[in-house]
């Protein structure tokens, strides 16, 4: 994936980090809106290996999450998937990922895309202040979370670095999808058909 990006000689790259357990339409709508609004040449989805904030929770095998991310992004020519964090292993820190992308791509303008919940936790991330120097952030609205905090306190200092993106609210979450599968409720139209089929085939989320 990094090799592709170098050949394409891109100027503006979006990075969408996540656990993607599973990837769903909330992620896809957010990435598409960010690409359009900020004229990104590409958005690369980076499934995490072992997320630092979720160590006590059981996470689906990285290879399954990677395959679902590929299936979901396959028919969008602007979207790609990177194995960077999965192959690096251990705990996945955004600062390491952003630095690797910057080293590989000369003069690239990086935009890290998040939902409202994730941006409001940014100051708990490793080397947050440095991260905010290394790239810009696009924070999308997400039902249940308010972006109004971005107008106050420490966030005020970073208003040139954190951009707010209003998207049609999709109250979809991976947690809810996992729970739905477990109790047999429908998940159709919340995520691509191909991902739904993969979940069925691999019998994911059926038990604890
Ligand atoms: P989980 O419930 O397991 O935490 P999730 O649905 O929050 O899953 P993540 O993989 O944790 O998905 O999220 C990756 C990124 O996508 C985060 O920045 C998150 O804020 C954003 N995101 C997830 N769902 C939405 C949504 N419905 N609308 C906007 N952003 C979203
Ligand atoms: Mg989440």
Give a description of the structure.
Its EC number is 2.7.7.18. Pathway: Cofactor biosynthesis; NAD(+) biosynthesis; deamido-NAD(+) from nicotinate D-ribonucleotide: step 1/1. Belongs to the NadD family. Keywords: ATP-binding, NAD, Nucleotide-binding, Nucleotidyltransferase, Pyridine nucleotide biosynthesis, Transferase. There is one protein chain. This protein is 39% helix and 15% strand. It is α/β, with parallel strands linked by helices and 208 residues long. It is globular. Strand 1, helix 2 and strand 2 (42-47) form a beta-alpha-beta unit. The protein has a single domain (2-171), classed as HUPs (Rossmann fold). The longest helix is centred in the first third of the chain and has 13 residues, at 25-37. Helix 3 packs antiparallel against helix 10 and helix 5 packs parallel to helix 7 (128-134).
Question: What's this, in brief?
Answer:
The chain is an alpha/beta fold and 208 residues long. The chain has ten helices and six strands. The structure holds adenosine-5'-triphosphate and magnesium ion.
